[in-house]
Amino acid sequence: MNSWYENDNFWEKWASYMFSPERVANTGYEVERIIQLLELRPGSHVLDVCCGTGRHLLELCRRGYRVTGVDRMKSYLAAARTAAQRERLEVELIEQDARELEQRPTFAGAINMFTSFGYFEDYNDDLRLAANVRKSLKPGRRLVIQTEGKEIMARDYRTRQWHRHDDGSIGLQERTIRDGWEIMDTRWMLLRGGQLEWDSVVSSRIYSAAEMRELLRAAGFAQVNIFGSLAATPYDDTAVQLIAVATA
Length: 248
What we know:
Elements (H helix, E strand, L loop, with lengths): L7 H11 L2 H5 L1 H12 L6 E5 L5 H8 L3 E6 L2 H14 L4 E4 L11 E6 L10 H14 E11 L2 H6 L4 E5 L5 E9 L4 E10 L2 E11 L3 H10 L4 E5 L14 E6 L1
Parallel strand pairs: 1-2, 1-4, 2-3, 4-5
Antiparallel strand pairs: 5-11, 6-7, 7-8, 8-9, 10-11
Helix pairs in contact: 3-4
């Protein structure tokens, strides 16, 4: 039986909501912060792991950086490629499961954005992915991971949440914590015109700051700093997300 993240229909159904105009509009700010956290020099080569439709890699390319994007979704990569061609941007796009990533240590920085970490049932697959990224970085260069921290989830936890989308549909999420706060199962439902259009469960491993630091060190990173936002604010009671900056 395939895992939930291997269901291409899920990613295609929810793409317009995950990559909303508001989120796309915020990309420029996020990339500015990424450049600062990675301490990128002009023209550096950046690896975008789980790049999706390419909003970060395209913005990095617009600013003069070389970018390689990796994702398993063919349609997402096609969207990124079409956007790049439209703007005459040169990007390298690789269709690949991130666990199989094999790159030489040539990158000056790497990113894994928008809570794209922790999808696998086996912890060792997360470790393998992180180790592959570390091996792809030049010595002393950095990886930035943006995700939801376990502490923030516990602070703001809601069992049920709903969103009314601009197209009139309603998205509902029902969350269940299991295995001692290791895994969060989220039931994603989409209603349109009073009819249930989508209903499936997404499961992800959730990390505290200490657990993320431990995993990245086990993957071979020499140093790991944790922040509460891309602006490098403290990871404390005011944190809005978990940002890990790991140095190879």
